[in-house]
Each structure stands twice: as C-alpha cells, then as structure tokens.
Design goal:
Rossmann fold; 16 helices; alpha/beta; 2 domains; four-stranded parallel sheet; six-stranded mixed sheet
Length: 390
C-alpha cells in the first residue's frame, strides 16, 4: 500500500527543492574576478597543484569537504529503501555538518549495493574530498567497506552508524557512572544487538575503560561467547573480546545482575529482563522511533535512562559526535580516525555537561553550540598524539 502524506505537512514543505544549495565564496562581479576564479588565472593554480598535490588542501575546498556516502540499504529504521529514498537523510546529514561544524558535505547516494563497486566508486571520488562519512550501509557489508576504504585512502573514513553511536554511548556512560559514583571498569554491561552499532559500541566501551570480560553482547539467538557455534566475522571477533564467563542463553539470562543495558537492536526487551538487573542501574534503549524498553518502564528499574529520541531526556544522538570529529580530523590534516581520537571525542562530549550532571542530563543537547568546538579540539589533539597527521 502506498505511503500516504500531505504536501502541506510542514515537514514536507521544508523538504521541497531539497535542504541545501551550493554558494560561491568569491565575488564574480567583474572581468578581473572572472579571470582569477576561472580561466585564465585558474590554470596557474592547477599547475601548482599538479607539481605539489598537497597544495589542494590550501587552494581548493578539499580541506573542509566531506562526502556523505550511502547505498540506501539500512536507512534509519526504514531498512533497504534504496538510494533515491535515502537522499533526504543524506541531505540532512550534510546540513548538520555545515550548521554545527562549518564542514561542507555533499550527499552521494550510490545505485549499487555491491561491495567491490562501492569501494571502487568511493576511491575514485576521494580526491574531491578531505574525508568520507559512510552512512546507512547494512551490516555486515559496512565492516568490509569501511575497512577497505580506510586501508586504501589517505583521508579519514568514518562509518557514523557504527562509530558515531559508539562515541556518544561512551560519553553518556562515563557521565552516568560519575553520577552514580561508579567506575567504568566495575560495571557489568549487556549490549542487545550485534549489528554495526552493537559491535562498534562494544569495542568503544572496552577502549574507553569497560572491562571486556564483563560485557555480554546478545543477538537474536542469545549471548555471544567465544566458541559459540555458527559465529563468524565481526560477531566472532566481539565474542573473543567479551563474556569471560561464557554466559549462554537469552537476554533475560544475560541481564541478571547487570548494571547497564544498552539496546541497539530495534527489538523489544521484556520488562521481566529488566527486573533482574542490579539496583541503581543504567538503561540506554536507543532504537528509534520505538525504544527497546519504553522510558516509563525503564525508570522502574534504572536510575539513569537514555534513548535515541528527542522527546525524552538524555538523547543519544550522533550529531553530538560526527561534526566535531570531522572538523578536528580535517583541521589536524589527519589521515585516519583512530580509537584514541574517538575516545577523546567521547571525553569532550561528556565534559560539556560534567559540572551539571543529573539523571536527566548525562549528555549535552544536540543543539548545544559548545559540543562541536570541544570535540574538534580534542580530536585534533588526539590525532597529533596518535601520529596520524600530515
């Protein structure tokens, strides 16, 4: 049945004609202006760059431009809706880049879901950009695409559905633990969902100080553990890092005595599972628009609750991470984005509200203008520390 909508709906009205445009940064009001911006003057700039390709960072937009690339295979919670239907999301992402961090971004929706074709296409496009933001590409293909592009390109490659979510989750958990006077290394954590976000969140938490053996990751078949039959790829890698006790069974079993629940699955978690958690718990139910556990239910069992929605407190929103991460990486001339840069971003996000922590304030607002600046500075410093700057 066709989707029904009203063209007079305010949301549709602001999307008419798209949400972005290209504007010149130089005047074109005289013959001299034209001769410098274009022929013949532009030829001298081209020859200088041909002689020294690094000059492209100074004399073109590359140093502040990012490609936002998707194949439309995993858009929001809508699934595989294809490249044309994905364009409003990619435009929105580009607008957020510009509004929050002054990064120019171009939405690129590819009409292929073949891994080799995507890698080849993005590689061919890469000289036009200073970074690649991969978006809404389904697992497990997203892991291979990011890995291959990261190895092939001398510029940062970042799959936001994985790492943006993971960075903000780590920031939120740092502050939730501070609020409850707990240490990250003492927390027992259950991650429900072993797709792109679940894998990245797990690795990020471990990099940020959570003890890997005290993390249990669950997929639709139950808890992952090293040696569970049928595991391969990213799931096998995560299983080897987590669940030292080799807990087996469903989500309810995994959550007995757990301090933290992080939902990134899109499925529903029964209230009975929450009842088995330790007291003064932490619940991040991040599926959007329908959280794995409704906040009104979660607060019966947890002291701190977060979701992915803007109409509840503590919104875990990727916009807290990706604009500042790319701004910092571009400013530093980073060739890649390291784990250290991601951890630094999480610490910066957490630090913005550290002085005003409350159960309903463990992360800043997505509209807080301090966030991108703080994240960019921390990421640029970490890039230098990690030795990935040009």
């Amino acid at each position: 049945m066709p989707f029904s909508f009203s063209p007079d709906d305010p949301t549709f009205i602001i999307h008419r004609g798209g949400k972005m445009e290209i504007a010149p940064t130089v005047a074109l009001s005289s013959r001299d202006d034209l001769s410098r911006a274009y022929t013949p003057g532009v030829a001298d700039v081209c020859l200088a760059i041909a002689d020294d390709p690094s000059l492209a960072n100074t004399y073109t937009w590359v140093s502040h431009a990012v490609a936002v690339v998707t194949d439309g295979s995993a858009v929001l919670g809508l699934g595989n809706i294809g490249p044309r239907a994905a364009m409003p999301v990619m435009e929105g992402k580009a607008v957020l880049f510009k509004a929050f961090a002054g990064v120019d971004a171009v939405p690129i929706c590819l009409d292929t879901q073949d891994v080799d074709e995507i890698v080849a296409t993005v590689t061919a496009l890469a000289p036009s950009f200073g970074g690649i933001n991969l978006e809404d590409i389904s697992a497990p293909r997203c892991f291979e695409i990011e890995r291959r592009l990261d190895a092939a390109l001398p510029i940062p490659v970042f799959h936001d559905d994985q790492h943006g979510t993971a960075v903000v989750v780590l920031a939120a958990l740092r502050n939730a633990a501070r609020l409850l006077d707990r240490k990250l290394g003492d927390l027992r954590v259950v991650v429900v969902g072993a797709g792109a976000a679940g894998v990245a969140v797990t690795k990020m938490l471990i990099a940020g100080g959570v003890t890997g053996g005290d993390v249990v990751v669950c997929d639709s078949r139950g808890a992952l553990y090293d040696g569970r039959p049928g595991l391969s790829g990213a799931k096998a890698e995560v299983a080897a890092l987590t669940n030292a006790a080799k807990l087996d069974g469903d989500v309810t079993t995994a959550m007995r005595g757990a301090d933290v629940l992080i939902g990134v699955s899109g499925g529903q978690i029964p209230e009975s599972a929450l009842a088995g958690m330790a007291g003064h718990g932490i619940v991040f139910a991040l599926a959007n628009p329908t959280p794995e556990v409704h906040p009104d239910v979660a607060v019966r069992y947890a002291t701190v609750v977060a979701t992915g929605r803007s109409d509840f407190p503590n919104q875990i929103n990727n916009v807290l991470a990706f604009p500042g991460i790319f701004r910092g990486a571009l400013d530093a001339g980073a060739t890649r984005i390291t784990e250290g840069m991601k951890v630094a971003a999480a610490e910066a996000i957490a630090g913005v509200v550290e002085a005003n922590l409350a159960p309903d304030t463990i992360v800043p607002s997505a509209l807080d203008p301090r966030v991108a600046t703080a994240v960019a500075a921390a990421v640029a410093e970490a890039a230098g520390r990690d030795g990935v700057t040009r």
